[in-house]
User: Fold this.
Amino acid sequence: MEKVKVLIVGAGPAGCTCGLLLLKKKVECLVIDQAEFPRDKICGGGLPPRSYRFLSQLLPEFRYDYNNVKRLKLSIEGREVIDIQMKEELRIVKRRQFDAQLLETYQKSGGAFLNDSLMDIEEKDGEVIATLKSGRQMSCDYLVGADGANSRVRKYLNPHCDRGSFILEQYGPKSPENAIQINLSASYQIGYYYSFPNAACDVQGFGDKNTTLQSFRQVLREMGCPDLKPMGAYIPQSTDYPLHERILLIGDAGGYANRLTFEGIYYAFLTASHAAEAISTGRPFAEVCRRTFVRKRTEERVARFFYSKTGLGILRFLCRTSPWLVRWCFIRLTT
Ligand SMILES: Cc1cc2nc3c(=O)[nH]c(=O)nc-3n(C[C@H](O)[C@H](O)[C@H](O)COP(=O)(O)OP(=O)(O)OC[C@H]3O[C@@H](n4cnc5c(N)ncnc54)[C@H](O)[C@@H]3O)c2cc1C
Assistant:
């Protein structure tokens, strides 16, 4: 049986970031992914300043392509309520390209990568044994589950985990405005419509607690978008975090996406850095993540209020009477 200190399952933002951080700490690791890169990932690709600043702090050497956007138009029930010009840009990446660039950076830094799929997990004598689709078996001191929304590692720890919110999106024609558009509505059940302009197209999406193809198409009609080729994926948002001494869940596998904005890439970077710290220092992952867990609970409460009828009413009122306050809150939320 092959032996590796840390086996990371998944080469998305969480897995590659964790791999790169472990390499910097001189901890032996192997990243595996079932997909051949470049591969697509259903995602708006929005990186707010908090996300890309944190990324450049963690991995200053990483270079990637993005579209620079400084304008956000917010509407409620289809009526524009505020047009925000930002000082700092939001970066919109194409995930196919971004994830491939991150994996390439990991490999160029000397990181080991294998194109294979995790099929089974066993625990024996304090070690974790992973069986891969190719038939290879690997024993490791730590198994890091960075295998996204349908995580097999997470199912091993918690077979009954909640799948989260289902989001549908499509690649719409590129509008000349280069602005992010968000629409909120009392008829959405904790969710929103968005249009994120990347370098090639406008990624138009919608998701709430009860997303269906029908509700997506209705939202597209209301927002004046053509009905193109919808693609769907889950964003897991856990309220329970299965913790294990040697099996760590990061990124979407751990269900860390933001409760209010649904962004998950920042939390992929953050929890990857938590895992690298826990593994390299021997500190329990639960202890390293403590502040993140507290933050998740706060987000949960804020999201419930924000998306309620009262929350939307207050937002609409503030956009009319104190737009500066809405701008300030938005900047606080994204930086
Ligand atoms: C419609 C939609 C829009 C979104 N928009 C945004 C946004 O604008 N901004 C933002 O910040 N977040 C957004 N998110 C969330 C974001 O996409 C995720 O939070 C992010 O991709 C999580 O990264 P990750 O590395 O944890 O997982 P992923 O990026 O999903 O990577 C997981 C990897 O694991 C691999 N894998 C899976 N199973 C196995 C296995 N058994 N063996 C080997 N490999 C395996 C997969 O091939 C994949 O490469 C969006 C999500 C959705 C669904």
Notes: The chain has a mean pLDDT of 94. The chain is about 35% helix and 30% strand. The chain has one domain: 2-334. The pocket of flavin-adenine dinucleotide is lined by residues 9-15, 32-35, 41-46, 117-118, 146-149, 152, 167, 169, 196, 205, 233, 235, 251-253, 257, 263-266, 268 (CB under 6 Å).
